[in-house]
Each structure stands twice: as structure tokens, then as C-alpha cells.
Amino acid sequence: MKIRVQSIHFSADVKLLDFIQKKADKLDQFFDQIISGEVYLKLENTSDEANKITEIKLLIPGNDLFAKEQCKTFEEATDKAIESLKHQIDKHKEKVRARMSNHKTVLANEEII
Asked: Using alpha carbons only, how large is the chain's radius of gyration in Å?
């Protein structure tokens, strides 16, 4: 899957970029129709230690999925955002399956009539 990473107001190191790509590639195991993804890494100006924000947007057919997490490290925020996206992918697949089974039921009923 093609991932585009933007780090806002800082330069992300290669290790972080590789970590994000590796985690995002695992999403292909759950849903093979992911078109691409966009990751935004931000530093929030606060006195709080949890000032690192990861936002991930996945482009899938007919929908976009989005997750935003704020933690002490970008790795932790990325992990949480990926987990959130896995849950969203599962919900999306359930909706598609339900729509397809309803559609098949309607077609079957029409053939009977």
C-alpha cells in the first residue's frame, strides 16, 4: 500500500518512517482494497508530555477511514491509530457484507415472483 507521510514543523527520521510504513502495510491483511493512505505527524505546543499526534487517513473504495491519536511518542500514537483503523475496517466489511446479503435476498425474491 502506498503511504504518504507528512511531518509538520519537524523532520521525521528514517526509523520512524519505516515503522509507520511497516504498521500500515499490516492493514492490507485485513482489507486488500485499500487504495492509499496519508499520515500526518504533528507536535503540539503544550507542557504536557503527550504532545505527539498521529493522524492516519485511509482511502478505500466508496469511503475514507480516519484515526487520530495523541501520545508521548509517535510510535505509540501510530499503534493506537492503526488499531482504531482495524476496528473501522471490520465495521466497514460488516456493512458491505450485510448490503451484499440483502441485495442477494432481494434478487432471489424477484426471481421467485
From this structure: 18
